[in-house]
Write a structure and sequence with these properties.
Layout (H helix, E strand, L loop, with lengths): L6 E4 L17 H14 L3 E4 L20 H5 L5 E4 L9 H11 L3 E5 L3 E2 L16 H7 L4 E2 L3 H10 L6 E6 L2 H12 L7 E7 L9 H15 L3 E7 L4 H10 L3 E4 L6 E3 L2 E2 L3 H14 L7 H8 L10
Parallel strand pairs: 1-2, 1-10, 2-3, 3-4, 4-7, 7-8, 8-9, 9-10
Antiparallel strand pairs: 5-6, 11-12
Helix pairs in contact: 1-9, 3-5, 6-7, 8-9
Length: about 300
C-alpha cells in the first residue's frame, strides 16, 4: 500500500511582499485563518513566519508569534513548524529566537549559504504599498548566510527542546552539509529533508535537477529520511507531482508561490493544498494525517511544546 503523503502548507514566508497579492496574509489573524483553512484542507504541517502588522515586513520576534500559535492549536490538530530562516537579512540569533522560545514540534533549518536573488520579481509590479518593498526585492547583494557555525548554533540552541527539523536544502552541497552533521553525531534520523527548487541562487527546477537531488539524498541517507519537495513560483505543482509520483512528500503555500495556475492568483494556501491533494490522491495515495506525519518524522507531540 502506498505510504501517506505529508502535505506542508507554508503560509506567508519572507519572499513575497504585500503588494504582490492581496491574499498574502500579514496580520496574526490572517495567518491564523489561512493556517487553519490549510489544515482543514489536508495539510499535516503548517510552516510559519510572522510579519509586522503595519507594513508587512518579516518579523522574527518571539512576540510576533504569540497571537498565532495558540490560536491555531486551539482550532485544529496540525503540526506547527516555526521558521529559523526568518529573512536573509536577519542574524542567526534573530532567526532562531521564536523556535527557541516556543519549542515547536518542528522547525525549519537552512543547510547552507547561498546567493538569494529576488530581483527578478521587481519588474513585474508597477506600484508598491510600502516603501521598503522595492529596495528589498531589488537588492542584488543578498547573501543568505548559513555557515557551519550558524547551523551548529541553531542545532545547539534547540538541542534540549525536543524540536526536530525540516532541513531545507537548496542545492546538492546542502545535502552533504547535513550528512556532515550526522557523521559528527550532532543530528540523527529520521531526517525530514525539504529539497528546494527554482529559487535564483539555488538549484534549478528541471526534472533532472529533482532527480539529481533525490539520488544524492538516497545515497547519503538511505532509508533514514523522508523526502519532500518545494517548487518556487510556477514550478510549484509540477515539482510536487514528481515527488508525489515517487512516494515523496510535498510543500505548497503562498510563501513559495502566490499562483494557483498560470495567470491565476491563489486566494489562500488552502487552495493550493486542495490542488496538490488532488494530485496525490489521483496517484492512489492519501494525505497524511498529523498523527501519521508525527510517527513518520518521530516528533515529540503537541503537548510538549511551549504554547
Amino acid at each position: 500500500m502506498p505510504s501517506p503523503c505529508i502535505i506542508t502548507a507554508a503560509i506567508t514566508g519572507a519572499i513575497h511582499t504585500p503588494s504582490m497579492s492581496d491574499a498574502l496574509p500579514v496580520t496574526a489573524e490572517q495567518i491564523v485563518t489561512q493556517a487553519v483553512e490549510a489544515a482543514r484542507a489536508g495539510a499535516a504541517i503548517v510552516h510559519l513566519h510572522a510579519r509586522d502588522e503595519l507594513d508587512g515586513r518579516p518579523d522574527q520576534s518571539a512576540e510576533a508569534f504569540a497571537g498565532i500559535l495558540p490560536a491555531i492549536r486551539d482550532q485544529v490538530d496540525v503540526i506547527i513548524n516555526i521558521t529559523t530562516g526568518g529573512a536573509p537579512t536577519m542574524t542567526v540569533q534573530e532567526r532562531v529566537r521564536p523556535a527557541e522560545h516556543w519549542q515547536p514540534e518542528l522547525a525549519s533549518l537552512n543547510m547552507g549559504s547561498m546567493n538569494f536573488g529576488l530581483f527578478g520579481m521587481l519588474g513585474r509590479f508597477k506600484s508598491f504599498k510600502h516603501n521598503w518593498e522595492p529596495d528589498y526585492l531589488g537588492n542584488k547583494g543578498i547573501l543568505f548566510r548559513n555557515t557551519f557555525e550558524d547551523i551548529e548554533y541553531i542545532l545547539t540552541t534547540l538541542r534540549n527542546s525536543g524540536t526536530r527539523f525540516e532541513f531545507e536544502c537548496y542545492d546538492t552541497a546542502h545535502l552533504y552539509n547535513l550528512a556532515h552533521f550526522r557523521d559528527q553525531g550532532v543530528v540523527s534520523g529520521p531526517f525530514f529533508i525539504q529539497t528546494v527548487f527554482g529559487l535564483l541562487g539555488g538549484i534549478g527546477a528541471h526534472p533532472d535537477d529533482v532527480g539529481h537531488m533525490k539520488r544524492t539524498a538516497d545515497r547519503l541517507f538511505g532509508d533514514t529520511y523522508q523526502w519532500s519537495v518545494l517548487g518556487a513560483g510556477r514550478n510549484q505543482m509540477n515539482i510536487a507531482a514528481i515527488s508525489a509520483a515517487q512516494g515523496g512528500n510535498v510543500r505548497v503555500g503562498l510563501e513559495d508561490s502566490i499562483w494557483l495556475e498560470k495567470g491565476v492568483l491563489a486566494q489562500s494556501s488552502a487552495e493550493q493544498v486542495i490542488r496538490v491533494r488532488q494530485i496525490v490522491e489521483g496517484l492512489g495515495r492519501t494525505a497524511a494525517t498529523p498523527d501519521e506525519a508525527r510517527e513518520m518524522l518521530a516528533l515529540k507531540g503537541p503537548d510538549k511544546t511551549n504554547f
